[in-house]
């Protein structure tokens, strides 16, 4: 058998690259349809209220407006778990920005105009929208996402902490973050010949199909949701959101295909965001920096409609050894939109606190921060007492230190000045769970010598389509140009959502199994040739996943950052970011590197730029667009490098693959903040680090 | 509805092809492309002039098509992402973007490419940028910091920035004949 050209481990340009650079890749509201109508959302202008009256007469008189959907006339929806999705059902407002009406019109312009003309009268009630660690609504949820214990306790933290030679007790604060994928949430829906057909900008069209089926009380088989190309998600499209529901309601109401694209401003809230988090971290260590006690208490917010419990302190359960340890999570139930998934939920904010605290401990102990982390490494999960399938945190730290040129670092803060600039470097560790969810796939051999592989995976920019094609090609043992991969369609064999860094591991496993099974059947039953009618194999990995041995599965990483701070303006520039990761077998080095630097850059953005600024009087963010909610731009990223250490881990799953879509953001903001401390001597425990906050502490220029 | 005071006839040349449109006066150039000409390559990332996803070339200059009413562009000559390639031959920027993995989700990509094409022409004409040392003498070659500065009107949330820079650097070297 000749070597396939698409071998796993070889850099491969994206299969859909040509479509994406020629503008022919179609996203959710770009599919042609006859008789299209357009929908536009109307959002609540108050935070908590009863809707007294909706006056749609002026809107309906606007030329081109077909309908105004409100709680009074919208199609009734059957209950589903997420009450966020029970849209336009009741005259209630739970948060400012909640969608309270939907205008449907012949054109975008008429829909938008109509939305301006809908008048909603409210009977407002007092609201509470600001998270504090003493908020009266704070409670202990039954579990934190996705299914972790809320609190954990090993040993006796209080005693261990009291007895420690070095004690650190600090509180870290991160604001609300908005995912802001470049494609705002959008859907096209059409009820046609007894089926509901939806093009959705989603990370998992199977869940959207199932949810629409339940909401509209139709069998899931009569709903088809596709997500062929998705303009990013970063978690915000990870579970069904309002857009496909509203588009389907509108399409049913006007009996036409309906496009609904939320605007950039509209997505700040209704589609989810990362909760603000307040974290108290206590570390107790001996003078050599060996941890005796770790405690991580996290406070975050949820809404009054649906519980969302960010798993902020879960990272701390796995990263460092210590005999005495405690983690807790408390939620404040506020009059806000429900927080939701955003890249590395839990680990991202949690790592900012823990890895900043570790840097502070290194300073307090007078120990190099890399050495401190190495001293607290562990070969067993510190709380579950399980061996790791592989744990290469130390290898990442050492390899990164070598590449970054850490060895000669002077630990003294605030002493490296060249002209107006103060220079500093920082490091942080990272870990992220390596899960492999159950998936199913179909592999089909056709008489013309080609192979068709189908799985309802989603490529939100990760490179999943290309990676799965590489895996399929290797498993089939044929040249890549004979293999076609189909994804992003709920009619395909079901597979897990593109989230939790599980895609390449879980989907590849299913694709590999289906392809190897097909290959074996062809060899054993057809002497290696394809029968005249072709041969199709459908398999799933349920039995294999259930039989996985009980070990702790994580990817690890280390971040390095070099910053310079302008003493006159307080401007922070990140001159270099370098990450080294242990993520098992890398399928496509080209797209893997892109994922890692993308995550690292989002961490840079978190450290320096992003901040949802809430106005408590209105219970809403005042910065609701990309001119005021800043995300890193091209000029902010000077030099950024991602590497990985060789890692052969056959216990994580049979393919040895760990996900890497999220670990790039775990710890990266802490590395930047730690570098700012090294540059200036100023410790930032509240993000973002912005010049007005730095300036008052800097030496005179 | 033609003849209504709310609509106007609009002549546009798009990718070398003439179009006679009858448009609602409120229609942006972006929506004219996407909803009336079925040219959905230009993307709507913010509809607000803040992200650059809708960038096209209007009379040779890069513009944000979401900020221009179609009637205001009447008589103009427009190149969108669909017109950047020469038939089936990709523009050097396009092939370099694929080779350098200069995108992930691809949603900002058409805007990045049109913006890069316009930007390279601005550099050729000697227009300075914030990264230019001598504003009078103009840019001294296409340094990475010049590319980064000049491409910062095009956001990429996937953060393919370093690959975008390397793709543009290579395309500007190989594609200067075009």
Automatic annotation (TrEMBL), chain A:
Q: Do you know which InterPro entries this protein is assigned to?
A: Ald_Oxase/Xan_DH_a/b, Ald_Oxase/Xan_DH_a/b_sf, Ald_Oxase/xanthine_DH-like, AldOxase/xan_DH_MoCoBD1, AldOxase/xan_DH_MoCoBD2, AldOxase/xan_DH_Mopterin-bd_sf
Q: Does the keyword Oxidoreductase apply?
A: yes
Indicate the segments forming the Aldehyde oxidase/xanthine dehydrogenase a/b hammerhead domain, all copies: 22-126
Keyword line = Molybdenum, Oxidoreductase
A Pfam cross-reference name: MoCoBD_1
Has keyword Oxidoreductase?
yes
Q: Which PANTHER family match?
A: ALDEHYDE OXIDASE 1-RELATED, XANTHINE DEHYDROGENASE
Name of the protein = Xanthine dehydrogenase family protein molybdopterin-binding subunit
User: Which organism is this entry from?
Assistant: Plantactinospora alkalitolerans
The top of its lineage is: Bacteria, Bacillati, Actinomycetota, Actinomycetes, Micromonosporales
From TrEMBL, chain B:
Keywords from the named record: Iron, Metal-binding, Oxidoreductase
**Which SUPFAM superfamilies does this UniProt record tie to the protein?**
2Fe-2S ferredoxin-like (SSF54292), CO dehydrogenase ISP C-domain like (SSF47741)
List, alphabetically, the InterPro entries matched: 2Fe-2S-bd, 2Fe-2S-bd_dom_sf, 2Fe-2S_ferredoxin-like_sf, 2Fe-2S_ferredoxin-type, 2Fe2S_fd_BS, Aldehyde_Oxdr_Iron-Sulfur, Beta-grasp_dom_sf
Identify the residues that the record assigns to the 2Fe-2S ferredoxin-type domain, covering every copy: 8-84
Under Pfam families, the record lists: Fer2, Fer2_2
Query: What is the designated name of this protein?
Result: 2Fe-2S iron-sulfur cluster binding domain-containing protein
Q: Which organism is it from?
A: Plantactinospora alkalitolerans
């Amino acid at each position: 058998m000749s070597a396939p050209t698409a071998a796993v481990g070889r850099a491969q340009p994206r299969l859909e690259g040509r479509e994406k650079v020629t503008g022919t890749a179609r996203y959710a509201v770009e599919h042609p349809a006859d008789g299209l109508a357009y929908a536009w959302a109307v959002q609540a202008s108050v935070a908590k209220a009863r809707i007294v009256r909706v006056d749609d007469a002026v809107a309906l008189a606007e030329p081109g407006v077909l309908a105004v959907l409100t709680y009074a006339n919208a199609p009734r929806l059957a209950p589903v778990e997420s009450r966020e999705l029970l849209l336009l059902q009741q005259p209630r407002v739970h948060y400012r920005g909640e969608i309270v009406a939907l205008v449907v019109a012949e054109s975008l312009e008429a829909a938008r105009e109509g939305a301006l003309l809908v008048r909603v009268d409210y009977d407002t009630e007092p609201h509470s929208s600001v998270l504090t660690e003493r908020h009266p609504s704070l409670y202990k949820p039954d579990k934190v996402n996705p299914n972790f214990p809320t609190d954990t306790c090993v040993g006796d933290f209080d005693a261990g902490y009291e007895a420690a030679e070095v004690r650190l007790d600090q509180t870290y604060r991160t604001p609300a973050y908005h995912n802001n994928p470049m494609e705002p949430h959008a859907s096209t829906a059409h009820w046609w010949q007894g089926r509901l057909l939806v093009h959705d900008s989603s990370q998992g069209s199977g869940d959207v199909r199932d949810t629409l089926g339940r909401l509209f009380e139709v069998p899931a088989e009569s709903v088809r949701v596709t997500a062929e190309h998705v303009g990013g998600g970063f978690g915000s499209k990870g579970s069904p959101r309002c857009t496909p529901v509203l588009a389907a309601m509108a399409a049913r109401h006007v009996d036409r295909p309906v496009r609904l694209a939320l605007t950039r401003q509209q997505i700040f809230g209704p589609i989810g965001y990362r909760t603000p988090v307040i974290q108290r971290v206590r570390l107790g260590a001996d003078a050599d920096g060996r941890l005796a006690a770790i405690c991580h208490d996290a406070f975050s917010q949820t809404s009054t409609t649906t519980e969302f419990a960010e798993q902020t302190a879960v990272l701390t359960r796995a990263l460092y050894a210590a005999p005495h340890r405690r983690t807790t999570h408390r939620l404040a139930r506020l009059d806000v939109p429900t927080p939701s998934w955003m890249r590395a939920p839990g680990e991202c904010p949690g790592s900012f606190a823990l890895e900043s605290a570790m840097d502070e401990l290194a300073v307090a102990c007078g120990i190099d921060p890399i050495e401190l982390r190495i001293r607290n490494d562990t070969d067993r999960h510190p709380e579950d007492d399980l061996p790791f399938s592989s744990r290469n945190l130390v290898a990442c730290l050492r390899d990164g230190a070598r590449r970054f040129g850490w060895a000669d670092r002077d630990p003294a803060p605030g002493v490296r000045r060249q002209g107006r600039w103060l220079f500093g470097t920082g490091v942080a560790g990272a870990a992220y769970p390596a899960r492999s969810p159950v998936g199913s796939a179909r592999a089909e051999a056709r008489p013309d010598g080609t192979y068709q592989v189908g799985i309802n995976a989603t490529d939100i920019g990760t490179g999943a389509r290309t990676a799965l094609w590489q895996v399929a090609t290797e498993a089939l043992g044929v040249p890549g140009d004979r293999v076609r991969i189909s994804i992003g369609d709920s009619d395909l064999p079901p597979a897990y959502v593109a989230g939790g860094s599980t895609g390449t591991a879980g989907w590849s496993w299913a694709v590999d199994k289906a392809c190897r099974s097909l290959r074996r059947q062809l060899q054993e039953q057809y002497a290696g040739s394809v029968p005249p009618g072709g041969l199709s194999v459908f398999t799933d990995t349920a039995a294999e996943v259930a039989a996985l041995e009980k070990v702790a599965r994580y990817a690890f990483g280390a971040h390095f950052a070099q910053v310079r701070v302008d003493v006159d303006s307080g401007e922070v520039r990140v001159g270099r970011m370098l990450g080294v990761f242990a993520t098992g077998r890398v399928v496509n080095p080209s797209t893997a590197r892109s994922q890692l630097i993308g995550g690292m850059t989002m961490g840079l953005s978190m450290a320096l730029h992003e901040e949802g600024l809430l106005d408590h009087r209105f219970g809403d963010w005042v910065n609701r667009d990309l001119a005021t909610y800043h995300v890193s731009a091209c000029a902010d990223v000077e030099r950024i490098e991602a590497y990985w250490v060789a890692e052969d881990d056959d216990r994580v799953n049979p393919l040895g693959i760990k996900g890497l879509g999220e670990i790039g953001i775990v710890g990266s903001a802490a590395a930047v903040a730690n570098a700012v401390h090294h540059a200036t001597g100023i410790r930032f425990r509240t993000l973002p680090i912005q010049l007005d906050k730095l300036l008052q502490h800097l030496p005179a220029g | 509805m033609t003849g209504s005071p709310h609509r106007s006839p609009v002549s546009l040349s798009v990718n070398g092809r003439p179009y006679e449109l009858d448009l609602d006066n409120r229609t942006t150039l972006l929506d004219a492309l996407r909803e009336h000409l079925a040219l959905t390559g230009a993307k709507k990332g913010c509809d607000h002039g803040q992200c650059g996803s809708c960038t096209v070339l209007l009379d040779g200059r890069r513009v944000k098509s979401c900020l221009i009413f179609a009637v205001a562009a009447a008589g103009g000559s427009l190149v969108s992402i669909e017109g950047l390639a020469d038939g089936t031959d990709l523009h050097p920027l396009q092939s370099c973007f694929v080779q350098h993995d200069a995108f992930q989700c691809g949603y900002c990509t058409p805007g990045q490419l049109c913006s890069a094409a316009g930007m390279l022409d601005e550099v050729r004409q000697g227009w300075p940028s914030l990264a230019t040392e001598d504003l009078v003498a103009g840019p001294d070659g296409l340094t990475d910091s010049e590319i980064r500065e000049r491409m910062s009107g095009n956001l990429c949330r996937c953060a393919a920035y370093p690959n975008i820079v390397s793709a543009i650097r290579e395309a500007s070297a190989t594609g200067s004949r075009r």
